[in-house]
Amino acid sequence: MNQLKLKVVTREGSGTSAARRVRAEGLIPANVSGQGNARSIAVSLVDYRKLSRDLGEEASLIELTDDKGESMLTLIQSVQQDPIHGTINHIDFHEVRRGEAFVTRVPVHLKNEDNCLGVKNDGGVIDFKSHEVEIRCRPSKLPEHVVADVEMLSVGDALHISDLPELEGVEYLGNDVQVIVSIQPPTVATVETTEAVVDPADVPADNIKSDSDSDADGEAGEAKED
Asked: Which residue range forms the structural domain that includes residue 131?
């Protein structure tokens, strides 16, 4: 289990104008939901950026500690970003309790991509379909990621949820036949052949005969025959 810490402050007020004031102070508006309560908080933009770097692409629990010294264990549920400027507008955290199972999604990491039989022997292409899987577990059993080993997959083979490694205290949710990754046949490029079209402007003048020249050649040939 990967667990990180983040300091937060209680946020007063709601609505667009209140959120703007919070952002003007270098904070990000946020909410914490779950366990029957919802709280409005704010997070330092600097602290959250550092947290994001530490998180990387791994699943992690975030311990939030407020300005009164109270802490809670959470997951990042969603992050709202401005599509144009890339600024973070809002964060939703979901509280979980130690010892109680909860549902979340964790990333899937591929292993042995370079040694995959279908790629090495037949020029196959790895089609990574499901980058995350949904699981149920207790906080102490939360894996940072799940590994999908593709080494023994040949062209036409697929690895499903039911093929993922068993992890203690972790239950995979969803359909067992959901495809995580498959090996597709190599892509063959199609080469189109077209007839070359000769532009009269590119033909030397000596090789161009006019209609009068053709008639003259014909009359000369008849004269010789006579």
From this structure: 103-184
